[in-house]
Description:
Layout: H1 3-20, E1 23-29, E2 34-40, E3 46-52, E4 68-69, H2 71-89, E5 96-103, E6 109-111, E7 121-122, H3 130-140, H4 142-149, H5 157-167, H6 169-174, E8 177-179, H7 181-190, E9 194-195, H8 197-202, E10 206-207, E11 212-213, H9 215-221, E12 230-231, E13 235-240, H10 243-249, E14 256-262, H11 263-270, E15 278-283, E16 287-293, E17 305-308, E18 320-326, H12 330-339, H13 345-353, E19 363-367, E20 381-385, H14 394-418, E21 425-429, H15 437-447, E22 451-454, H16 458-465, H17 473-484, E23 485-489, H18 496-515
Parallel strand pairs: 1-5, 5-14, 9-12, 15-21, 21-22
Antiparallel strand pairs: 1-2, 2-3, 4-7, 6-8, 10-11, 13-14, 15-16, 16-18, 17-18, 19-20, 22-23
Amino acid sequence: xxxxxxxxxxxxxxxxxxxxxxxxxxxxxxxxxxxxALVETKTGKSLGVVQEPKEEMSMFAQKxxxxxxxxxxxxxxxxxxxxxxxxxxxxxxxxxxxxxxxxQMHGLVLVDKQGNPLRKSIIWCDSRAVSIGNNAFKxxxxxxxxxxxxxxxANFTASKIKWVKDNEPAIYKQIYKFMLxxxxxxxxxxxxxxxxxxxxxxxxxxxxxxxTIADFLLEYYGIDKSLVPDIVETFGIxxxxxxxxxxxxxxxxxxxxxYRAGDQPNNALSLNVFNPREVAVTGGTSGVVxxxxxxxxxxxxxxxxxFAHVNYKKGISTKIGKLLCVNGAGIQYRxxxxxxxxxxxxxxxxxxxxIPIGSDGVCIIPxxxxxxxxxxxxxxxxxxxxxxxNNHHKGHLCRAALEGIAFSFYYGMEILKSDGINPKVIxxxxxxxxxxxxxxxxxxxxxxxxxxxxxxxxxxxAARAANLHTGDFTSFGKTIMDNDHVMTFMPxxxxxxYLKAYKDWKKELEIILNTK
Length: 516
């Protein structure tokens, strides 16, 4: 037998083996793109991930502060991605045994009795309903909102429905059900409309004190309770793909949808963060600190959001995800990349590595990406201070930016600490800011806690979560630990230089805040 014959035989055997394997499909519905992943049902190992479209999805902004997307565009890109994934990895529809869905949080999809969207989706970053939510917070009562909603109604989904009711009454009259983005995609697969407690809580529809739908908020806003979808468990058979869903998506009719969650709870799940004092962090364009607790006490409801985590179970398990967002994060470093005479993030990191802790006094306040909730919704912009034109150069700016973003994370963690969070485990994905040793070491040292880095994505996490309908969380966590761990950043033994730099940065921030 020739070498060519042997290779052909091996490829043929591998192909036969692959065709015997089964997979879960995971979707991650972002506002810029859709990611779709396949993982093996038995091992949880990722087969592959594809992204659609290649360019960022468009957003519609009829007015400043508005942001809308066509919900059917999400479905179109999902169907295209599934077709691409099946073809690229030679997978048949019969090999896909279940679906998990992660989606952009807080969006609003409104449908009529035929299930057709009545308008474009008002997505998470749309701020038209801010004043509606703020007024509700004051008039309902801050204490009642904190005790029962665990949040201000703010600019979340319930407030967006109220905006439609007030400004588009003809559309409001036609509403059969409202849905979150993930609910709508599940409906497109299955022709079944439902949602989860976790999803309702992110829209501020859940009364945690009574453990039921927040009737008092619906009554205040004048929203008909019949518009709320039926509730299903986060893990379990939520619905199944129907014939129309099969024809459009290429997923076999009868395939169960086993899981659904917003992107930040799903990111925590992807990092095996389920229990009190476990924290998931992300450092992309914006940054997020997501900490799990079982305590319903809320002290910072105006700065920190509190949602039912994926393993919250009515009357059984009170797991809350405290979400703190840092709008001005990676976007600051990207701005420097685009405006300094540098060719890559790697070059910037190398320049920053040659500068001492504290950047020789150069300080960057990185909040240039809109209003910051953790700063009481103040919009203070980016500030660069203490530059000496004789001594400082672009290396100082690179280091000061990484430190400034790290300091903003620590500032947020101090707020979480005042709200009862004392982390014992911190995990992050192996992307964006957490690839920077300076950034990660600065955060780890200030909080005096290891930061574990994992090579996973939201789509892979959603695919793996489809297997949690079995209830086997131990094997789920072991899959992540065995397959995804990349490295662990350890706190520096000498915290003092980092602490001094942080105090200098915080002093500059407080000067700005006191003048706003």
